[in-house]
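cron nightly-structures :: item 1 of 1
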Amino acid sequence: SAAAAADRRRVVLVAFPLHEPQSQWLLSALLEDLQHPVVMDGEAEPVQFVLKLHPSLPLRRFWRRPLALPPWIVLGERPMNEVLAEADLMVYAGPTSSWWEAMLAGVPVMKYQPDLLDLEAGHELEGLSVRCCTGTTLRAAITACLREGGEKQVVPDDVVQRLCTRVDERVWLTLTEPH
């Protein structure tokens, strides 16, 4: 419930794409946009941002500089389904299908898009729409979404089964890594 969320630190999961230039852009943009913590009214702890990199694109492959993250931003090491269980919101930059997994887990989803042309516009899943934000609107959009709070939206099992099953990162890496 919204009251329970106020009793714990809010968590925003940020899902990174598999594409190296897009991941570089996203990390640079987030470091710029989140230099200062996002603090919700009446909450002592700032919002925690968990950066979830694509399992096939570790940080060392797209980020060559030393990375110093502020305390409110952490790298997520656990599998997506575990992080989603704690997330109040998932923000992503395409191309990625992780937004499907978040939506199917009932987590509100927001697309962080460049201020330029968006080639992936119009995401919707079974009547559930995806909100969008840009660098200029990121903080306000996240705050508004978290303020709305509420319970995670339950997606019917038949919809989940019809569209896909959840991704197991270990299986993904086994299938995609060179042997």
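cron nightly-structures :: done
The chain has eight helices and eight strands.
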